[in-house]
Amino acid sequence: QVHLVESGGGLVQTGDSLRLSCAASGRTFSSHAMGWFRQAPGKERQFVAADSWSGTSTYYADSVKGRFTISRDNAKSTVYLQMNSLKPEDTAVYYCAASTSRYNTRYQYAAGYAYWGQGTQVTVSS
After folding, report:
1. By the 8 A CB rule, do 50 and 107 touch?
2. Contact criterion met (CB below 8 Å) for 26 and 5
3. How many CB atoms sit inside 10 A of residue 7's CB?
4. Which of 67, 80, 83, 120 is deepest in the core (most CB within 10 A)?
């Protein structure tokens, strides 16, 4: 079992930056590839970014490529999502998720993850 807790969300203006954190507890953090998803009101949960267990492989949705960066600190059992140049369309609840493997070949699908955090709200005003 892996317990995930996100933090760092908030209300910002267009062009601002935020860094989300996701702290994990339970099983060995480095055994899990991680991902970030988001869900806006009335919309399906959407893939944002993912990595491999070491953080050397990273993947991004086209909508955030070049603006968002996923990283991790295995010693702190934490994965981060650095979000720059935020836009109003980035407004959503952001969730971190843990897969059951070190490399997740289904990283862009919610079904590819076994554990989820409770989410943190990010609101970008225009």
Report:
1. yes
2. no
3. 13
4. 83
* Measured CA distances, 29 to 16, 42, 61, 64 (Å): 30, 32, 23, 25
What the block records as the tokens of 103 is: 């490399």
- Residue indicated by tokens 């806006």: 40
**Helix or strand run (H / E) with residue 45:** none
SS3 90: helix
Alpha helices, DSSP H only, in the chain? none
Place of tokens 């079904």: 111
Per-residue pLDDT tens over the stretch 6-23: 999 999 999 999 999 999
Q: What is the DSSP letter of 104?
A: -
The closest alpha carbon to 32, from 94, 96, 121, belongs to: 96
Task: Determine phi and psi for 79, rounding to 5 degrees.
Answer: -115, 145
| CB hemisphere CA count around 97 (13 angstroms) | 26
Each residue of 48-95: pLDDT tens digit? Answer: 999 999 889 999 999 999 999 999 999 999 999 999 999 999 999 999
